[in-house]
Automatic annotation (TrEMBL):
UniProt xrefs under InterPro entries: HTH_LacI, LacI/GalR-like_sensor, Lambda_DNA-bd_dom_sf, Peripla_BP_I
Highest taxon above the source species: Bacteria
Membrane-spanning intervals of the chain: none
Listed name of the protein: LacI family DNA-binding transcriptional regulator
Cross-referenced Pfam families: LacI, Peripla_BP_3
Keyword DNA-binding tagged: yes
UniProt KW keywords: DNA-binding, Transcription, Transcription regulation
SUPFAM superfamilies: lambda repressor-like DNA-binding domains, Periplasmic binding protein-like I
Record carries keyword Coiled coil: no
PANTHER family: HTH-TYPE TRANSCRIPTIONAL REGULATOR GALS, LACI-RELATED TRANSCRIPTIONAL REPRESSOR
GO molecular function: DNA binding
Amino acid sequence: MGEGENVTAGFRDARPASAQSVTISDVAEAAGVSRQTVSNVLNAPDRVRAETRERVSRVIAELGYHPNHMARSLRASSPRMIGCRILPVHAETVAAIQDRFLHALAEAGQECDHHVLLFTAADAAAETERCTTLWRAGAVSGVVLYDIAPDDARVSRLTAVGVPFTAFGRTATSTEQYSWADVDNAAGTAAAIDHLVAAGHRRIGFLGWPEGSSVGDARARGWLTAMDRHGLLAGSHRLDVRGADTTSSGTRLMAELLDRPGPPTAVVAATDTLAVGALHAVRDRGFIPGRDIAVVGFDDSPAATALGLTSVRQPIEEVGRLVMAEMLRLTGRTSGADGESPAESLHRVLTPELVVRASSAPHKDSPLSDLDAHPLRP
């Protein structure tokens, strides 16, 4: 037997009972190729080397795989669409990061004759079903995942059914098994800490989300590691507080910190939303941000510019370009001579930038040397 026959024969014993349940991933695994190569054998056989094409065709016949010809026809004739679920926006948020990302994704797609199809879903499970339905119907050539959880089930489920996808964000493990682009959230928070330490602050609090979010946990880790690096963690261990990502939560958490013995002279918030809430609490006590207490946010929203809030800016536009380019690669719009991917999967971490404004700039009438010597007073 040849190599392909051995692989197929070994797989046949464990193949699904019904040919209807055989997926493109099953064929790819049995033939020892990528899902994209199987797709090219079916849709653009001239792109695949003869030897590979024959092996994949043999496995397709052995497993009884029947591709959805209607979906293939629709994908070939319909506009080039990339699907993405749009999340609901909370009433108490000031940082619509997904809106910026979708705008960047749409602009990148327009440059290469692709469009973004937005849809809603009740939860992650419903999103997976919706993605699969849209892809099988030929409405989209692939999908983009947003707001990735540490153990996000969407990744494995979409991989299993063969839906091409790229993620903005990454899981805690198995990141080599799918395409993604992410922002170094820990580095962004650490840069904020370095800025505040350089300005003379020693008691620096953190307003974050409850544990369990990839982004929130990474931003909290940045605060923790940077404070430890500066030798300030022991004196600030009680200054890490968590709550929902709303302005009212930020106000409540900041008030809680200000009521503690030895309150912080500065805080870093996991989002601009929490930071804006913190600004409300600071002003409610009669303090002046930047003069009496420094506040730094994350996401550099329009609200940060309007309020003079120092914030960490994510390179959202670059993320959008990278994700769209990867979708083109995964859906076969760019390929090598033999049908294999011309480059490795996208695994990119981008560095954010700290934008300094008045909320963390010490006032000339309030020397920093006094901040740690005396408790804050209005």
